[in-house]
Amino acid sequence: MLADYVIGIDCGGTHTEGYAYNQKGKEEYHFHGGQANLMANANQAFENVSLILSQFFKSLNRKECKLILIGFAGLGVYGQQDKIIKKLGLEDMNVRLVSDADIALINVLRGQDGLLVIAGTGTVVLGQQGLQKIRIGGWGHLLGDEGGGYFLGRSAYKKVTDDYDEGQYTDFSNEFMKHLGVSNVFSAVNDFYSKSKSEVGQQALFVAARSDQLDEDAQLLIRNAATALSRQVILGISRLNIKGSVTIGLSGSLVEHNALYEETLRARVQRKCDNVLYTKAIKNQNNAKAAFYAYQSWQ
């Protein structure tokens, strides 16, 4: 039976992944289950996580577990950590509860201090320096998410309306309207307001494709989005007040799969801070690996 192990559980809004790692960080067991978003359905979240834990303890000695790290979606709003630990029957264990964003921070930075920049449909900048933790952005598409996929998709629609206001459509706007299956600005605007947040965010793929075809307007939209996010990264560096080099983890489709976006983001940050080390999550490594990194750094 495995001795001296840690368990990491990454809880999301659609599914939950649990892993057990040995002292060297090797994955030994993996179980998965349903959603565990505390704000969507707390009782179901507790049930799904409890089921995963019970599967671990059928194969592993409970007393040999050195740490259980659980990243819950919705933890920041739900709170009540003592109640959660009691609900899961873990009062006798070394348990740490963190948000789903914080478990990503620990995983990407391998348990070290620094910043995590997440740029998908939305954006958020998370930071940690010793006991200090910060969050910048991530307030949703109406209040924030600067530079994310929704921001970029919306900017494509905005380009169409700006061109109309100026009296002449650019090639980008004509191609974008063709892509939408509309023929004028009014239909484009109607299309925008009829789409969900995720559907608007998906239009970032069109902008990226046009950028790859060297469309200068599309490239400018990408640079503008990356610049918007860079301002939050620079603010994060300032707030953490890290002496020496700063480690920045990059996560999300925009910074992982769009070279121009990533290059622009790095260049803008470089202007304000020239001692930055960048890192990304290890490919196909679940955020539950944060349990191993956390145990190593918290000892």
TrEMBL record:
It comes from the Bacteria. Pfam families: BcrAD_BadFG. Residues 7-266 form the ATPase BadF/BadG/BcrA/BcrD type domain. This is ATPase BadF/BadG/BcrA/BcrD type domain-containing protein. It comes from Pediococcus parvulus. The lineage of its organism: Bacteria, Bacillati, Bacillota, Bacilli, Lactobacillales.
